Amino acid sequence: MANTALVIVSHSVGLAAGVTEVAQQMAPDVLILPAGGTDEGGVGTSFDKIDAAVNEAIASGEVVILSDLGSATMTVENVLEFLDDDRAQWVDGPLVEGAVLAAVAAQQGGDLVTVINAVKEAATQWDYASNGEVEETPSGAESATLPTDATTATVVLADPDGLHARPAAMVARAASGKDAQVTVNGVDARSVLALMGLGAKYGDTVTVAATGPDAALAIEAVVKELS
């Protein structure tokens, strides 16, 4: 089990459970707990539900908490004030995107600070996209010159939906934990957002490159997830 857990707080029982389900698929070794709705299961928030989830999660290590709306955040803040433990931290960020990136970071062994930064990365990307400032990247285009000593492989994307969140997360997991620097079409293979930003679609050919002692192993693992 990973050292950093997540708690997903929402006004809706279903939304908290749904976000948890999506994030859990990206990070099977991470403890992710939903805390949605009121004590009666209605729309709203529950101090007791959030408190129970945070206390269960913190028993395993550190905890990052995400929430959907302002009043949920206020309840989280009350729980954290009562808990008074720096191992549990609320982070401001988009609920779904933040949960996915946080889960991937935790799955990769990230500590509290690393997972918090993953949520902040999601928030930055969300703001960037909301302002209409995202650069268009040609599908399958390479964004950087390959190192001369890189081991490379090309692969045709097999997922009908292209390089979307789930396969991007699987690639990021495959590229992590190895003594190698891995890229897909020039972007860091450990970054879910960077991979999704490629806009690669089903049937596109992408180039996987790696340098370092585990380059061959890393490429094999990444190609397996893409094909």
TrEMBL record:
Q: One MF term in GO for this entry?
A: phosphoenolpyruvate-glycerone phosphotransferase activity
The record's listing under PROSITE patterns reads:
PTS_EIIA_TYPE_4 (PS51096), PTS_HPR_DOM (PS51350), PTS_HPR_HIS (PS00369)
Which Pfam families does the UniProt record give? EIIA-man, PTS-HPr
The PTS EIIA type-4 domain sits at: 3-127
Q: Which key words tag this protein in UniProt?
A: Kinase, Transferase
| Domain HPr, first and last residues per copy | 150-227
Record field: catalytic activity: dihydroxyacetone + phosphoenolpyruvate = dihydroxyacetone phosphate + pyruvate
Its source organism is Gleimia coleocanis DSM 15436
SUPFAM superfamilies (alphabetical): HPr-like, PTS system fructose IIA component-like
What protein name is recorded for this chain? Phosphocarrier protein HPr
**What is the E.C. number?**
2.7.1.121
Q: Name one GO biological process term.
A: glycerol catabolic process
Listed InterPro entries? DhaM, DhaM_N, HPr-like, HPr-like_sf, PTS_EIIA_man-typ, PTS_EIIA_man-typ_sf, PTS_HPr_His_P_site
The record, for PANTHER family, names:
PEP-DEPENDENT DIHYDROXYACETONE KINASE, PHOSPHORYL DONOR SUBUNIT DHAM (PTHR38594)
> Per its database record, what is this protein's job?
Component of the dihydroxyacetone kinase complex, which is responsible for the phosphoenolpyruvate (PEP)-dependent phosphorylation of dihydroxyacetone. DhaM serves as the phosphoryl donor. Is phosphorylated by phosphoenolpyruvate in an EI- and HPr-dependent reaction, and a phosphorelay system on histidine residues finally leads to phosphoryl transfer to DhaL and dihydroxyacetone. General (non sugar-specific) component of the phosphoenolpyruvate-dependent sugar phosphotransferase system (sugar PTS). This major carbohydrate active-transport system catalyzes the phosphorylation of incoming sugar substrates concomitantly with their translocation across the cell membrane. The phosphoryl group from phosphoenolpyruvate (PEP) is transferred to the phosphoryl carrier protein HPr by enzyme I. Phospho-HPr then transfers it to the PTS EIIA domain.
Oligomeric state and partners?
Answer: Homodimer. The dihydroxyacetone kinase complex is composed of a homodimer of DhaM, a homodimer of DhaK and the subunit DhaL.
Q: Name one GO cellular component term.
A: membrane
Its organism's taxonomic lineage begins at: Bacteria, Bacillati, Actinomycetota, Actinomycetes, Actinomycetales
